[in-house]
Design a protein that fits this description.
456 residues, alpha+beta, two-stranded antiparallel sheet, 11 helices, 25% helix, disordered N terminus, binds heme C, binds calcium ion
């Protein structure tokens, strides 16, 4: 009897073990990049799904909001969706944020249909610590105009290349785009500062909205007191409704404090739609600019809410290939190379008015702070607390699906990097030692790190 029992135990235990492995493989927590909101999709529509745990009421609103985001606005007068322009860049949100992913950089000089736009200013500090707008042009170049107004100019690009060498003797050439304005409708004043910005992906932003401000501030280390060479700081930006300075979260320099203001700013600057937040057209002094406009605001409170609701309730796709040995090695190298010092892997969200976003354990890989990225990435155009060399750490979730969603999509604030490898090699400033760790890795390790990023 004493002999039979253990034999039986061993057989039972090993059998149940096998069964478990086949039926329910253990998924690490980080696979659920958006916590309970995570969706499992790997196709071209991977960025278009609503939060997995969304309520039925919110789902109905999400579908309405989807319509607003895709809507092509027209000039006034119109019974619906009027108010486009008079100056604008594109007539719908989606024409820049393609399938909710990135925009495409201009294909040729003067290409009017790109997702990249130029922010403008002249040196100095403006109202609330913001930029000083360019007389006649404002804070952004609108390259389209309705009849009667003048488009402000065209986007032109030249390129410079530089060579990066790996220790194994192979090399890679990086190309730096330099954007200028051609055919301005009036002469540009001297010394105009230009910051090219490509349209970033818009999914998962409700979760970033739901991160507690104190959790962001806890990561800031402006004077690098811990001596690790990394000194993230928040951008303190103007909150139009609160009439106070708040921590910025959205945009490549974290210039917008919350989802609603981000949406209203996009509608206003990129499409010429006035709203409760920004009630005046941004004509920067053009004489014909106010003619033919509809009475009142172009978008009402409901429409403003819908623009924001859409991207707040877009789900993050799950991490892929998490159990692949290369991906596992890559995730270790990501920490060893200090990538995770800025691309903070994990947060737990606070409470949010959209309840599906509350108390979620998420893996966005951003600290939402500004970092000095060196002269190579600089736009030399300060805005609020962000210097001309500082950028907000972008989230890396969904990164590997970027080109599945849009094969022409590229990386970094001005879309200069064709690949993830190029994006890493452009890192400088506070991230210089991190980049050097990558550059001096053996090829197998570089590939493992890239495999990890491709799986995000
Ligand atoms: C002309 C192209 C264009 C159009 C049209 C456009 N956007 Fe954008 N969007 C951008 C660019 C470029 C940025 C980055 C801006 C920056 O960093 O200053 C951006 C940023 C954003 C962000 C912040 C993303 C992040 O990760 O921080 C959101 C959200 C957004 N846009 C939503 C919208 C909505 C909603 C609309 C329609 C009302 C819209 N956009 C229309 C180009 C566009
Ligand atoms: C000092 C902070 C910092 C460190 C360290 C850092 N990054 Fe970044 N990373 C950034 C910032 C800021 C940007 C955006 C720069 C820009 O667009 O000009 C960025 C951009 C990226 C992008 C492009 C994202 C996009 O949406 O286009 C990738 C990929 C990336 N980082 C990966 C890495 C990897 C891998 C490492 C480690 C080898 C690393 N980063 C280290 C701050 C950092
Ligand atoms: Ca308008
Ligand atoms: Ca303008
Ligand atoms: Ca530090």
């Amino acid at each position: 009897m004493k002999i039979i029992i253990p034999v039986c135990l061993i057989i039972c235990v090993s059998a149940s073990c096998k069964k478990d492995q086949i039926i329910t493989p253990e998924l690490p927590e980080r696979v659920f990049a958006g916590g309970e909101t995570t969706i499992f999709s790997t196709g071209p529509d991977a960025f278009t799904f609503p939060l997995e745990n969304i309520s039925q009421t919110d789902l109905n609103t999400h579908f309405l909001a989807d319509g607003a985001f895709a809507q092509h606005f027209v000039s006034a007068p119109a019974t619906q969706f009027g108010g486009l322009g008079p100056l604008f860049n594109q007539n719908s949100c989606e024409s820049c944020h393609i399938r909710n992913g990135r925009g495409i950089v201009p294909a040729f000089d003067g290409d009017p249909n790109s997702g990249l736009l130029l922010r403008l200013s002249i040196p100095g500090v403006g109202e609330h610590g913001g930029i000083v707008a360019v007389p006649g042009f404002g804070g952004q170049l609108q390259n389209k105009a309705l009849f009667g107004a003048s488009q402000e100019g065209k986007i032109t690009r030249t390129e410079q290349t530089q060579l990066i060498e790996y220790l194994d003797g192979t090399s890679l050439s990086l190309s730096l785009p330099v954007y200028t304005i051609s055919d301005p409708y009036i002469p540009l004043p001297a010394g105009v500062l230009i910051s090219p910005r490509n349209a970033p992906p818009v999914f998962g932003l409700g979760l970033l909205d739901a991160i507690r401000t104190e959790d962001i501030l806890a990561l800031a280390d402006e004077n690098d007191l811990d001596g690790d060479g990394i000194s993230g700081k928040p951008n303190m930006v103007w909150d139009v409704l609160a009439q106070s300075k708040e921590v910025g979260r959205f945009g490549w320099k974290a210039e917008q404090p919350n989802a609603r203001q981000q949406a209203a700013d996009a509608a206003h600057n990129d499409m010429g739609l006035t709203s409760y937040y920004f009630p005046e057209e941004h004509c920067a002094g053009q004489d014909n600019c106010q003619e033919g406009l509809q009475a009142g605001l172009d978008v009402d409170e409901d429409m403003s809410t819908l623009f924001a609701f859409y991207f707040q309730t877009l789900a993050v796709p799950a991490q892929r290939d998490a159990n692949n040995p290369d991906v596992i090695l890559g995730s270790t190298l990501f920490v060893d190379a200090q990538c995770s010092s800025c691309h903070t892997p994990r947060f737990i969200t606070g409470s949010h008015p959209i309840s599906s976003l509350s108390n979620q354990t998420i893996y966005p890989y951003t600290d939402l702070l500004l970092h000095d990225m060196g002269p190579g990435l600089a736009d030399n155009r300060a805005v609020y607390s962000a210097s001309g060399q500082e950028w907000r750490t972008p989230p890396l979730w969904g990164l590997g699906l970027t080109k599945v969603v849009n094969p022409k999509a590229t990386f970094l604030h001005d879309g200069r990097a064709q690949t993830l490898e190029e994006a890493i090699l452009w890192h400088g400033g506070e991230a210089e030692s991190s980049r050097e760790k990558f550059r001096t890795m053996p090829k197998s390790e570089r590939n493992a790190l890239l495999a990890f990023l491709e799986g995000l």
